[in-house]
Amino acid sequence: MSDVPQILLNHRLRSLRLPTVLREYGKLAKQAAAEGLDHVQFLVRRIELEMIDRERRMIERPLSGHCFAMPCRVTDETLSN
To answer: In 3D, which of 54, 62, 59, 60 has the Cα closest to residue 20?
Structure first.
């Protein structure tokens, strides 16, 4: 059997920036086949895991590297310039 579909899928998932799908689709596909799930049920599970992982990473992402502007005051002098 050709590895072309697998290679193409891996490339597309990287291009779409779907790391959780890329990492987990093989395991989940085997599990879905064993449970007799159809392709829609498989995709629902797959996308749910991607969303959970993205939400987790968003929460864990540190704010320390972000630059926030200092609050400024609008004064008469600022408006006259």
So the answer is: 54
Task: Give the pair of three-digit tokens for residue 33.
Answer: 């086949």
User: pTM of the prediction?
Assistant: 0.58
- What span, in angstroms and rounded, lies between the C-alpha atoms of 26 and 6? 10
Segment 35-77, tens digit of pLDDT = 999 988 888 888 898 899 988 888 887 665 555 555 656 666 6
Domain ranges of the chain: 4-60
Q: Is 67 helix (H, G, I), strand (E, B) or coil?
A: coil
C-alpha to C-alpha distance for 19 and 14, rounded to whole angstroms: 7
Tell me the H-state helices in the chain.
4-15, 19-35, 39-60, 76-80
